[in-house]
Amino acid sequence: MIFLIILLIIASVDFGSEIMEIAKNDLLRFVKLSVYFLFYIVVTYEIIKQVWISETVNIQIIYGVISGYISLGLIAYFICMSIEMFYPGSFHGISASNENPEILSNSIMYYSYITMLTIGYGDISPVTQIAQKTSILIGLMGQFYLVIITAIIVGKYISQSARK
């Protein structure tokens, strides 16, 4: 809880500095990404833990599973965005480059979810070795989440139905 409060304070300071247009340099952008990254790691962990320890499957558990998957995609986004910040040009097919941060951010978000879902249209591709390895990791994270969490939920649902 203390960790979440600290992250909330850092995020609030970051939002305040962004409003005052201080957050223009890369260091503050990296701090902002780091805070969000840590926040979503904690959130995803808590969601998975709650799904894991639940005894019954209900609508809240289903929402939790969906939220966990979305959070996992955001973690992938923050990883890819950090790579693009430190190694510009790591992803081929992003037209905006660093000139328009909003288009860059949207393209990286799109790439992260497409990779996690293992769709892989090929319009954006990793070029550097770290981006390629991260893409593999993101695809594996998405598949492991789907396979393991789905198996847990189905097993609990079957067990719940058998008890009735």
Structure description:
The chain is mostly helical. The protein has a single domain (49-163), classed as Helix Hairpins (Orthogonal Bundle), CATH 1.10.287. Mean pLDDT is 82; it is low at 19-23. The termini are far apart. A two-stranded antiparallel sheet has the order 1-2. It has five helices and two strands.
Please supply descriptive tags for the structure shown above.
164 residues, mainly alpha, Helix Hairpins, two-stranded antiparallel ribbon, 5 helices, 76% helix, globular
Compact overview of the structure:
The chain has one domain (49-163): Helix Hairpins, CATH 1.10.287.
Helix content: over 70%
* Helix and strand composition category: mainly alpha
Provide the gyration radius in Å.
18 Å
**Termini distance?**
37 Å
- Give the percentage of residues in beta strands: under 5%
- Return the domain count: 1
Overall 3D geometry?
globular
Strand order of the largest sheet: 1-2
- Average pLDDT score: 82
CATH topology-level name: Helix Hairpins
CATH architecture label: Orthogonal Bundle
**Biggest sheet statistics:** 2 strands, antiparallel
